[in-house]
Design brief:
single chain; alpha+beta; Neuraminidase; 30% helix; EC 5.6.2.2; DNA-binding
Length: 922
């Protein structure tokens, strides 16, 4: 017991745990999970291939049972479970797992559907021809050897591979505290990159990407976007998005029904599970438009068919599949491999340099080995050539010797005539041909040749048929070849350029034999799906309430009604809130939202949440960075992508948009414009372009190039500078040669040429547009279109149509003419829009009531009239806005509501006032 106690060493348990965990971690990192950067193999793969090589299980030999290989691997080199070893062999034989197979399998080795391989007693394997190249020259002392787990066998520490296996087949594994995930690449591209780097060691990662554009997966697919590839190649870490390849086919000849056909999948995606997932999404109605799903894959290739409902847009369904299934998956690149026995994060250039450095070492060591063997063989041939040139004395000496040992001693002690080899040795260089360590007493000396013990033994072992003249010539020819080989091997070792030429030749040979075309397509696109890709394009009604709530609804949700109808509630608002702005916009459009403080913000229509009629929507402060007291006063629809393309082509762009000369920093008073009775002033058009024309409540207007609003800022931008108390009330897109109509709440309108307002920068204040009376404000601004009719509406729900020609042109800055009578019955003017026959309009009350009616049902009258009932309002309800619907849906004729006859009477009562309109313009 006392002896046993002496073997117990007291240690701190914390220190012991730390050390033991560190030992375990390093064992897993170096011995299991991470590949060697030189050959791209983990220990288990290396041991499997070496075991197959030792079994003679090469590519040109018969198959052997997998169980035989597994047994040898476990018994000699890899003391772990047979399942793990067999799974390794299976994966090296699966054409959907490895880009370039290392094991040639015969039997069932699983499928892309996740089916398991057959048991190892049924399947058969052998190395592929490419795997043979990984082990080429293994017997020429090209790599170091290490003992196996019990010290009874020697195994290579690394393979002398001619193939850049780390890149072409990739690797994945989880160690302790680190992991690796290296994608496969195309062999031809990788070798091209190696050759380019050998030619110019100063190449950068970006330069190398001209040869190696990205990963090349065995299952093909599409890599969507290059940013992740660039990041991974530069830093060793990155994320790439891999999509399934999908074709759209017509089901019927008319092309009314289509089907999606999946022909390629992202790497390591289980096809059966994908189909189950799609079926589940269809069942749960998370993806609409799919009527049938089936797998038509066979020996000729993959084919998963997804039939779509008639009229369904294939791109919308496909984008939803990308978003909700693994048809688009993320491959996280994490290039961690062992370099000099230590884990290292590597970029693209690092991986190529390690492989080239390994090849340089392997070829050097192989050359040294071959040079030693060539010298040894040359030394033997040299002795035999000397013996054959002195054949008679040699035979006499051997015959006279009583024993072979004495004959050997006599051969060594005799000085032989050397004419047969002397000239050849001198040409090749006597020192370069001598084996290392050969004693100086042997060989040519003083015109004679002295045989070494090895040469003497070889002479004694010569067969009699070698004594013939023909054999003598063959021996001398072989000796000359050996001398030439020795010279070439020495050149390789002494000339670095020649060494690199040898490496280049071998790489080019590998490329010629095993290179193939790229399978995975790389598209220069966005890295991931945008929300817009998942949204069907449609017209939507966007509303913003006075209290700052926004929402959107499909335009089709509203049915057309007859004029004077009670309408449907467009939004649920609190008693003190009401809808203030309405816009019909495409769901993919970008909205410019102008605020009361003169700032502009950007939102996509689909970013405004959809809500029911009864819902209030979402507070704008949750969508935009609005300041306290700031509210949205105008909305405008633009095509941002087209605008950005235009901005990119502009040579005068600055950090905010374009440089505009002569920005106005103060409000400029109106210029006097004369107008001859009965004549129309000629409009002076500016250069064609797109502009934002804005108007404020104080009557100020400004024209700014639209391109200055092409660069969205999350915090918004200043659209124009405002006087204290002023607000922006309207904005429109123009081309610089339009007309402008300004309407005040006093019922006045001013029509003038847009060209009378010069172009100004984004932060300019603008110029005087309309002179207003005390307590009066602008409420609307229009850019009239030829042949349009102007529909005006008052706060009590009355309105009318008036032909554009009824509104005379005036100079900018005037008071304007009457647009609509603002009597006690009508109240103030609240809005004006331009309409065409056949269109529809929407009217919004401060209590959230919405009426949609046809323009044709609103009577047409002169300027100086009161109008007819557009919407029946409650006693305490007022009209706050109206909007034109561009494309009316199918009209549903509702019954006329009571009170419509009264509206017609009011229409008749307006007639006398219409006759007197010309006398009361000002």
């Amino acid at each position: 017991m006392g002896e046993l106690a002496k073997e117990i060493l007291p240690v701190n348990i914390e220190d012991e745990l730390k050390q033991s965990y560190l030992d375990y971690a390093m064992s897993v990192i170096v011995g299991r999970a991470l590949p060697d950067a030189r050959d791209g193999l983990k220990p288990v793969h290396r041991r499997v291939l070496y075991a197959m090589s030792e079994l003679g299980n090469d590519w040109n030999k018969p198959y052997k049972k997998s169980a035989r290989v597994v047994g040898d691997v476990i018994g000699k080199y890899h003391p772990h479970g047979d399942t793990a070893v067999y799974d390794t062999i299976v994966r090296m034989a699966q054409d959907f797992s490895l880009r370039y197979l290392l094991v040639d399998g015969q039997g069932n080795f699983g499928s892309v559907d996740g089916d398991n391989a057959a048991a190892m007693r049924y399947t058969e394997v052998r190395m592929t021809k490419l795997a043979h190249e990984l082990l080429a020259d293994l017997d020429k002392e090209t790599v170091d050897w290490v003992p196996n787990y019990d010290g009874t066998e020697q195994i290579p520490a690394v393979m002398p591979t001619k193939v850049p296996n780390l890149l072409i087949n990739g690797s994945s594994g989880i160690a302790v505290g680190m992991a690796t995930n290296i994608p496969p690449h195309n062999l031809s591209e990788v070798i091209d990159g190696c050759l380019a780097l050998m030619d110019n060691a100063e190449l950068t990662v970006d330069d190398l990407m001209q040869y190696i554009p990205g990963p090349d997966f065995p299952t093909a697919g599409i890599i969507n976007g290059r940013a992740g590839i660039i990041e991974a190649y530069r830093t060793g870490r990155g994320r790439i998005y891999v999509r399934a390849r999908v074709e759209v086919e017509d089901i019927d000849k008319a092309g009314n029904r289509q089907q999606l056909v999946i022909t390629e999948l992202p790497y390591q995606l289980n096809k059966a599970r994908l189909i189950e997932k799609i079926a589940e999404l269809v069942k749960e109605k998370k993806i609409e438009g799919i009527t049938e799903l089936r797998d038509e894959s066979d020996k000729d290739g993959m084919r998963v068919v997804i039939e779509l409902r008639r009229g369904e847009v294939p791109d919308v369904v496909l984008n939803n599949l990308y978003a909700q299934t693994q048809m688009q998956s993320v491959f996280g690149i994490n290039v961690v491999a062992l370099v000099d026995g230590q884990p290292k994060i590597m970029n693209l250039k690092d991986m190529l340099e390690v492989f080239i450095r390994h090849r340089r070492e392997v070829v050097t060591r192989r050359t040294v080995y071959e040079l030693r063997k060539a010298r040894e063989r040359g030394h033997i041939l040299e002795g035999q050539a000397v013996a054959l040139s002195n054949i008679d004395p040699v035979i006499e000496l051997i015959k006279a010797s009583p024993t072979p040992a004495e004959a050997k001693e006599r051969l060594i002690a005799t000085a032989w005539e050397s004419s047969a080899v002397e000239a050849m040795v001198e040409r090749a260089g006597a020192d370069s041909c001598r084996p290392e360590g050969l004693d100086a007493q042997f060989g040519l000396r003083d015109g004679k040749y002295y045989l070494s013990p090895e040469q003497a033994q070889a002479i004694l072992e010569l067969r009699l048929h070698r004594l013939t003249g023909l054999e003598h010539e063959k021996l001398l020819a072989e000796y000359q070849e050996i001398l030439n080989l020795i010279g070439e091997l020495i050149r390789i070792l002494t000339n670095p350029e020649r060494l690199m030429e040898v490496i280049r030749e071998e790489l080019e040979k590998v490329k010629a034999e095993f290179g193939d075309k790229r399978r995975t397509e790389i598209v220069a696109s966005r890295l991931d799906l945008t929300i817009a890709d998942l949204i069907t394009e449609e017209e939507r009604v966007v509303t913003i309430s006075h209290g700052g709530y926004a929402k959107s609804q499909p335009l089709a949700a509203y049915e057309a009604q007859r004029r004077g109808g009670k309408g449907k509630s467009a939004t649920g608002v609190k008693d003190e809130d009401y809808v203030e702005h309405l816009l019909v916009a495409n769901s993919h459009a970008t909205l410019l939202l102008f605020s009361s403080k003169g700032k502009v913000y950007w939102l996509r229509t689909f970013e405004i949440p959809e809500a029911s009629r009864a819902a209030r929507g979402r507070p704008l402060v949750n969508l935009l960075p609005l300041d306290e007291g700031e509210r949205i006063t105008a909305m405008l629809q633009i095509d941002l992508e087209a605008l950005q393309q235009s901005a990119g082509a502009d040579e005068d762009l600055d950090d905010e948009g374009v440089v505009i000369e002569g920005e106005a920093t103060e409000v400029v008073e109106a210029e006097e414009v004369e107008e001859v009775e009965g004549e129309t002033p000629e409009l002076v058009a500016e250069p064609t372009g797109a502009y934002i024309f804005m108007a404020t409540a104080f009557g100020t207007v400004k024209k700014t190039p639209l391109v200055q609003f092409s660069r969205p800022r999350s915090a918004g931008l200043i659209a124009l500078k405002l006087e204290e108390g002023d607000t922006l009330i309207a904005a429109a897109i123009t081309d610089g040669a339009k007309e402008v109509m300004l309407f005040s709440d006093a019922g006045k309108v001013l029509r003038f040429a847009e060209s009378k307002v010069r172009t100004m920068g984004r932060t300019a204040r603008g110029v005087r547009g309309m002179r207003l009376g005390k307590d009066q404000q602008l409420i609307s601004m229009l850019i009239p279109e030829p042949g349009a009719q102007i529909l005006t509406a008052s706060e009590r729900g009355f309105g009318k149509r008036t032909a554009l020609g009824k509104f005379p042109r005036r100079g900018r800055g005037g008071q304007g003419v009457i647009a609509m009578v603002t009597s006690e019955r009508n109240g103030k003017l609240v809005g004006a829009i331009q309409v065409q026959d056949g269109e529809e309009i929407m009217l919004i009350s401060d209590q959230g009531t919405l009426v949609r009616t046809r323009v044709d049902e609103v009577s047409s009258s002169g300027r100086n009239t009161q109008g007819v009932t557009l919407i029946k309002l409650a006693k305490d309800e007022t009209l706050v806005g109206l909007e034109r619907v561009q494309e009316p849906t199918v009209v549903e004729e509702d019954e006329l509501v009571e009170g419509e006859e009264g509206a017609e009477v009011a229409e008749s009562a307006d007639a006398p006032a219409a006759d007197a309109e010309e006398g009361s313009e000002e």
